[in-house]
Amino acid sequence: MSEADQLVSRQHANPHGYLGAHPDNGSGVVIRTFRPAAAKVEVVLADGSHETLGCVHPGGVFEGHIKGVDLPLDYKLEVDYGESGTITIDDPYRFLPTIGELDVHLLGEGRHEELWERLGAHVTEVDGVAGTAFAVWAPSAKSVSVVGDFNYWDGRIHPMRSLGSSGIWELFLPGVADGARYKYEILTQENEIRLKADPVAFATEVPPKTASVVHDPQHVWNDKEWLEARRQSSAQDGPMSIYEVHLGSWRLNPLEDNRSLNYLELADELSAYAKDMGFTHIELLPVMAHPFTGSWGYQVTGYFAPTPKFGTPDDFREFVDRVHQNGLGVILDWVPAHFPRDDFALARFDGTALYEHDDPRRGAHPDWGTLVFNYGRHEVRNFLVSNALFWLEEFHADGIRVDAVASMLYLDYSREEGQWVPNEYGGNEDLDAVKFLKEFNEVVHGREPGVISAAEESTAWPGVSRPTYLGGLGFGFKWNMGWMHDTLSYFQNDPIYRRYHHHELTFSLVYAFTENFILPLSHDEVVHGKGSLLDKMPGDRWQQLANLRSLYAYMWAHPGKKLLFMGQEFAQQQEWSEARSLDWHLLENPEHSGVQSLVRDLNHAYKAEPALWEMDFDGTGFWWTEANAADDNVIAFARRTRDSQRVALFVGNFSPVVRENYRIGLPRPGRWNEVVNTDASSYGGSGVGNMGAIEAEGEGWHGQPFSAEVTLPPLGAIWLVPERNDRATGK
C-alpha cells in the first residue's frame, strides 16, 4: 500500500513524513498536502509567488515540485473548494514536533509530573505562527486525527503523528485559537472509529454537549502572600473548620429562573459568608467536568477542566483567588477511584481498556456502574498524580480530599466470592492502588508543602494518615467515619435510652489519636432518605434544635478537625437535593438563625482557643474528667495546649433535665468563663446557665485537684475556659 493510500485510508502513523515540505533529490523541495474535496491547491511562497500542486490521488492528495528553494521553507496553502470558496492556511505538516525527546521519554515512562504541560491543547506560537499544539496518549490506535469547528469535524483532514513507543500522538494546528471546540477521532485496531473528548482538556462544552474546548489561561493571580504563608505552615497544627459545599445548589438566583450562581458570584457571596461564619476552609464537591448533575460531580469525564456550568476555567481561578483574599482555603473533592462509562470520555479510549482494567473483576465497579482505573499501569498512575498536581498548581487549591479510598484499597470491595481476584500473596488488598496512593501523597507533599491531603476511608486500614516512610499511605488526614456513625447513632436515640448507648460517645477516644482525623458531618449523611441532621434528632421541635446545638458544641470540642455540610449550619430542615437551593428562608425564624449564630460563635471561639486544636493528634492533650455518668447522660473532658499554659473544658448534658449544682472536676483554680452555652436564649435555648462564669473550689473531684458546682442546661453543652488562659499568654 502506497503512502498516499495509507493516508487516505487513515492508517498512516507518520503523516509528517509524507505531507509537508521535503527535499526533492537535491533539486528543490516537494510539497504534499491532503485536502479531500478540494478542487485546486496552490502553494503561496513568502515572495508572493504561486505554485500549483497536482492531484496525485483521487482521495485528495496533492503534490508539487518546487525548484530552486531549500528547507526550511516558509509557505502557505491556498485551497480552492469551488463553490464553497477558497481558504488560505499555514500547512500544519511543515512544523517540527512540539514535544521534546525528554518529555516523550518521561511520558512513556509514566514519570512526567507536569503531564498537563505537554498533553492536551496548548495555545502557542511555532516559528512565528500562532496556533494550538495538540497531544494525546492513545498507544493502541492505528491513527488519530484532531477534529473540530476548524476542519468541519472531518477526521481525514488533520491526522496526527505518532511519537513512537510512548503512545503519544501530536499535531500543531496553525490558526486554532482559544475557544475552539475539538475532539480526537481515533481509528482502533478493529478499524472502528471512536470520537473522544480530550482526557487532558482544560475546558469543555456545557452538558449535554461533550466537545473539548481550547483554553488559554489569562488569569493574573493576587494570592502570593496566601501561598507563601501556606508553604510555611502545617495544617495539622492549626485550627481547621471546613464548610463543605455543592456549588450548584448552595444558593440559586430567584430573579433568573432559579439558576445556580456562577463562579464570580460565588467568589464574592460564598467566600464572604464562610468568612463571616468563621470557617477556615471551603471544601467543594467535585468541580471537575461531569455530564450528569445527579452524580454531584463524582462521575468525572473531564479531569483537567472545571465544570463549565458555572463559568470558564479563568472564572474558577478568580473564585479561588478571591476566597484566598478572604482568608479561607479551598479543598477540592477528587475522584481517582472510578470513572463513568460515557462513550465520549475515557472508557476504552483507544479501543482497548486503556485507563481501566480489562478484567471486569478489577475494572468494573458493581455498586456505581462505573469503571475502575488500572493503577498497575504507570501511565495511568502518572495521569492521576499529575491531575492532582494540576489543581494544586494551576488553580492554587489548598488541598485534595480523595473520595472512596476504601473502594480502592480492597479487591473484594462490594464483591461476592468469585467476583474478585486475590493479589499475588492471596490477600484482598489492591497492592497497585496502595502504591498509587503512596505515590500521590509523596509527590503532592513533596511538590506543594503545606497542602492538605485527606482520605475518605471507612475501614480500619492502618496508617492512612501516617508517612509512607513509616509504612503509612501518606495522607495528611483521614475522615473519622466511626466517630460520625457512633455520634449520630447516640444522638438519634431518645434521651431516656441514651444511658444504654453511652459508650457510643466515649468509644471514639479509644482510637482518636491513631490517625489525623477530620470529624465529618458531610453531604453523605443528609441524602438518600437519611433526612437532614435536624430531622435525625429526637423529640419535639424544641428538643430537636437543642439536640442539634449540643451535637455541634460536642463536635467542635472533640479532638480532630471539623467538617460541616452546607445548610446544616442553620438547621436545614429538608434533606439536601442538588436540584434545589438551600432553604435560606428558614433564617427568618429565630430558631434557625439561632443555630446559625451558634455555629458562627463555635467557629470563632474554637479558633481563638489553641487548647481546642493544637494537640488534636496527641493523646496527652486530652483527658476525661467525667466519662461514666451514663445515667445522667453527662460527659466532661479537658483539652490543653502543647505547653500546658491553656486548657479548656467541655461539659455536655444530653438529657432534657436541668442539672443544678452538678459538681464537675477542674484542673485549674480560679475563675472559669462560660465561653459557649448552647442553651443561650440568643441561640433559641431556654437561657439556663452559669451567669457567664464559675469559681473553682479546692475540693478535688473527678480526679481533678479542683471542682465547682455548675448548672447544666437541658440537652445542652457548655465550654469553660479559665481566665488565667489569657493572662498566661499575655492576651
TrEMBL record:
Its EC number is 2.4.1.18. One of its GO terms (biological process) is glycogen biosynthetic process. The active site is at residues 403, 456. Pathway: Glycan biosynthesis; glycogen biosynthesis. Pfam families: Alpha-amylase, Alpha-amylase_C, CBM_48, GlgB_N. It catalyses: Transfers a segment of a (1->4)-alpha-D-glucan chain to a primary hydroxy group in a similar glucan chain. Belongs to the glycosyl hydrolase 13 family. GlgB subfamily. This is 1,4-alpha-glucan branching enzyme GlgB.
